[in-house]
Amino acid sequence: xxVAWRRWRAEQRELARVRATFARYVGPSVVDMxxxxxxxxxxxxxxxxxxxLVCRIRNFAHFIEPLSPDETLRYLNxxxxxxxxxxxxxxxxIDTFLGDGIVAVFGVPVDNPTQEDDALQAALEIVRHVxxxxxxxxxxxxxxxxxGIGVNTGNMIAGDAGFRDRREYTVVGSEATFAHRLQEAxxxxxxxxxxxxxxxxxxxxxxxxxxxxxx
Length: 215
Prior knowledge:
7 helices
């Protein structure tokens, strides 16, 4: 009886850990799915094929120079709300909030065969939201901002990283870093979205793609 009770307590602790970790990233239905799978490898490092989306506000440091702290946080919260909503609507998880942007991942922790399309749809929705907000900001006598987005798909390492007091589920590797490079290229090219060939190769009939050279 004691052994069974200890095993039950260990299982409950693990269930609580899964729920506490992933409830911040995905909807309740996805958390329930993860709990039902009882996958012991969920927190261990494993190689996955995933798609990373990186979105940042253009020239944010210059943009906020004339703003008060309250005004700055108001813009950031509006940005996080519209990007986070678009990401989660298209089955992505929010990996990191940057000081001037956001990083999202598609295809983890649950496999997603349409992750590339979902990431591009989320990117387009973010752009549409930002453009639509311009009229609202103008009516409020507030200046608008614009964004640059990088999207890349490839093999990455996914798992639970951090230290005792704070751990997060994340993806790392050169393919994840490349998404950040593509986001920087979006600014350099004065483009809203720059996506890698690996993300777009199976979607050439779904989108109007403009080849980029010199990056």
